[in-house]
Structures are given as structure tokens and as C-alpha cells.
Design brief:
Helix content: over 70%
Order of helices and strands: HHHHHHHHHHHHHHHHHHHHHH
Number of strands: 0
Shape: elongated
Structural class: mainly alpha
Strand content: under 5%
Number of helices: 22
Oligomer: single chain
């Protein structure tokens, strides 16, 4: 049998990726690496190896093989030397480390990438390093700082006319605004991302945008509209056969179905999301799924089952040192104590959660905790204070929204209206 050349293998791998035969593509990239010498004098051979290492690692990450992907990116860095490819490798090491919850390692790699990119006057590498640093800081709950990095990276992508980089930036900006409660700004950013994703045929970012748009409407309590976005996003995620895309969309869809009293159907999606998040190594999706499952089971009267998920969430938050996740864990544990009737314990949990929610700029969670504290205190004056603070945070979210219908829909939602009417 005639052995195919590395060029032929690379073309076949690219084709396999296009038609969603991802494992076949990984094997073809592996064959290229086996056939070529990392110390080859031929620059074309060295570049082909770097491209194969990068694409192979990217696919491994998308298929949930996170440790193997990180090892591949590290090999890519070792072979890249002090070139622009080394900057790309360091950025990918930073991103991949963050996916595994290794945030300090990720920050170190990204800092090194930024220094090298500036030394080489490599604008594209600088943009990528700035954007990836913003994502990692957002994962750590440092949302204002993350936005400052995005604000530096977006104009660089626009200067380079890099529409894919611009698309990714809009998605990241949207996520940060959504986490901070600036939902109108988030929707605008996600709509820009979705348009670019569709124009470029980027199915993965189309799913991200649909999922995030749905989550924005979920935050505004417009569940029917959120459901439409998430159903479309899940359909695209399944059609791409990339499980990492399916995980968070399933989580959001499950949460909405539960809220719409389709509890059994919703729980199936939530458990599917948790399984996929664990299989594909996505701790950020995993902790959000655990949080929703904990609250859902408690709301359904299954307190001990809910407690199991809340405790698992706290363990994961502590292991990954994720303050935003720990705030959610403490909130869920407070709900458990409230359901048990131990109101002092619930208050203690919620006060700790409130501190972390402020530290991580989770405005939605902040007003929800103040509302919960108002509901359990026997001090009427203190209850008034908690409700007033909750109402102020709600107004901080609502009144900057320029879309009158969007703002009115949020303000008329039952949980929001209950606070405003009480004040």
C-alpha cells in the first residue's frame, strides 16, 4: 500500500473536520506527526507539524479530552521556539488550563504570551492574549477587569479585519455584561456575535450566541422567548455532534422547562447537561448545572437530594477556587436550611453568599439574596431595608435598558414585581 504524504493527510484531516468526522481527523493529524521529524530542516515540514499539533489539540478539547489537548498545546509550544507560533501556543495553553480550572497556570501562560507578542510586534497574538486573559479573569469573577481586556482586544481585531476574532470578542463582552446584570448590553453584543457567526458559517459560535441570548431572556423572566433560543441552539449543537456545545444549552433549556412546570422533562435536560459537562471537562458548566439541580430538587420537596448537589457544588467551587460558584453554593445551602426551618443558619449562609456575590458582581443573585433575607427576618425594619436594597439593584438592572418593551417585561415579572410592590 502506498503511504500517503503529509500534505495528503492534512487535506484529508481538514475534510474530515468539515464533515464532522472529528476522531478521523485527529487520527490523520496523529499520522502526520508520526511521519514527520520535529527537528526537520525543512520549514514547510516544521510548519505542517505545528498546524497539525494545533488542530489536533483543538479537536481533542472540543471532544472533551482536555488533558490530552493541554499536552498537545504544550508540545506545540516546545516545537514553536520564540516565534509567532509560540505566542499562539501560549494563548492556547492559557485557555486550556482555564478549562481545567488551573487558573494560575493559565494566567502565567497568557502573561508570557502578551510579553512575547509585544516583543515580536505581533498584533494578532496580542489581541488573542488580551481576549483570553479577559475570559480567564471573568471565570475568576473579576468582571470589570475582564471587560477592560476585551475593550483592548476588540479594536485590534477590527484593525486586523479579523471577523472571527471580532465575533469571539462580542461573545465575551456579552457574557461579562450578562454576568454583571447589564442585560441590554449583553443582548446587543450577542446579536452582533450571532450575525457574524452566521455570516462566517461558524456553527459553534452560532450555538454560543443562541444559548447566551436565551440566557439573557431567562434573566429577564421571558421564559417563552428564552426557550425558543435554547431549543434552536440545542438542535444546532446536536447536529454538529460536539458534546461540549450541548452541555450548557441543555442546562439552560432544563432550567426553563422546570420554571414552566415541565419538571420531569427539565430534569432530564439538567442531568444530561451535568453528565456532558463532566465528560467534556467544563467545570464552569458543571457548577451551574449543580446549582440548578440543587434548587430544583429543593423546590420539588426533595431536600436531601438537593443538598447532595449543593454540597457537590461547594466542593467543586472550593477545588477550582471559583468565588462565583461558591456564592451560588452558599445560596443553595441557605435555601436548604430555610426549607428545614433553621432560619439563623439560612441567614448565615446567605450573608456569606451575599459578600461573594458583591465581590463577583452577580447583581441578579444579589437582589435575590436580599429578597430571601427579607422573607426570613423577624425584624420588620431590617426586612424593609433588604427589600429596598433588592429594589435598588433591580432598578439598576432595569432602567439602563433602552428597549421599553424589554424593560417593561422584566419589571412586570412576578418575582420582580413582588419586591417592587412590597417596597
Amino acid at each position: 500500500m502506498t503511504q500517503r504524504s503529509p500534505d495528503q493527510l492534512f487535506n484529508e484531516a481538514s475534510t474530515a473536520t468539515t464533515i464532522a468526522r472529528y476522531w478521523d481527523a485527529i487520527q490523520l493529524y496523529t499520522d502526520i506527526l508520526a511521519q514527520t521529524d520535529p527537528h526537520a530542516a525543512d520549514e514547510n515540514v516544521r510548519q505542517m507539524r505545528l498546524n497539525a499539533l494545533e488542530q489536533r489539540s483543538r479537536l481533542l478539547s472540543q471532544l472533551g479530552e482536555q488533558n490530552a489537548a493541554l499536552a498537545g498545546y504544550e508540545q506545540y509550544y516546545l516545537e514553536a521556539g520564540s516565534s509567532e507560533s509560540a505566542v499562539k501556543a501560549l494563548v492556547n495553553i492559557g485557555r486550556q488550563s482555564a478549562r481545567l480550572g488551573q487558573y494560575n497556570r493559565g494566567l502565567e501562560a497568557l502573561k508570557e504570551a502578551l510579553v512575547l507578542a509585544e516583543a515580536l510586534n505581533f498584533t494578532a497574538g496580542r489581541a488573542d492574549a488580551l481576549g483570553a486573559t479577559g475570559v480567564l479573569l471573568a471565570n475568576l469573577g473579576q468582571l470589570e477587569e475582564s471587560l477592560s481586556y476585551y475593550a483592548k482586544s476588540l479594536p485590534l481585531y477590527q484593525q486586523l479585519r479579523d471577523r472571527r476574532g471580532e465575533m469571539r470578542s462580542y461573545n465575551r463582552i456579552g457574557v461579562a455584561h450578562a454576568q454583571m446584570g447589564s442585560i441590554d448590553k449583553a443582548i446587543t453584543a450577542f446579536q452582533q456575535c450571532l450575525k457574524l457567526a452566521r455570516d462566517l458559517g461558524e456553527q459553534d459560535h452560532a450555538v454560543y450566541s443562541l444559548n447566551n441570548l436565551g440566557e439573557c431572556y431567562q434573566m429577564l423572566f421571558d421564559l417563552p422567548k428564552a426557550l425558543i433560543y435554547h431549543q434552536e441552539g440545542l438542535a444546532v449543537a446536536i447536529s454538529t455532534r460536539l458534546r461540549y456545545l450541548e452541555a450548557d444549552t441543555s442546562r439552560n433549556l432544563g432550567a426553563e422547562l422546570v420554571a414552566l412546570d415541565r419538571v420531569e422533562e427539565g430534569l432530564r435536560h439538567l442531568h444530561r447537561a451535568l453528565d456532558l459537562a463532566q465528560e467534556t471537562g467544563q467545570p464552569d458548566v458543571e457548577w451551574q448545572a449543580l446549582y440548578t439541580l440543587a434548587l430544583t430538587y429543593m423546590q420539588q420537596g426533595q431536600q436531601e437530594k438537593g443538598l447532595e448537589y449543593a454540597l457537590a457544588l461547594r466542593r467543586l467551587a472550593e477545588e477550582t477556587k471559583t468565588k462565583a460558584a461558591l456564592a451560588k453554593a452558599l445560596h443553595a445551602l441557605g435555601v436548604y436550611e430555610q426549607k428545614k426551618g433553621d432560619l439563623p443558619a439560612a441567614e448565615q449562609m446567605w450573608q456569606q453568599a451575599l459578600f461573594l456575590a458583591h465581590e463577583t458582581s452577580q447583581r441578579i443573585l444579589i437582589w435575590q439574596i436580599h429578597a430571601a433575607l427579607a422573607s426570613i427576618t423577624s425584624n420588620l425594619d431590617l426586612a424593609v431595608v433588604h427589600r429596598r436594597i433588592a429594589a435598588e439593584v433591580i432598578n439598576q438592572i432595569a432602567f439602563p435598558i433602552e428597549d421599553a418593551a424589554l424593560r417593561a417585561g422584566f419589571l412586570s415579572a412576578a418575582p420582580v414585581r413582588a419586591i417592587l410592590d412590597a417596597v
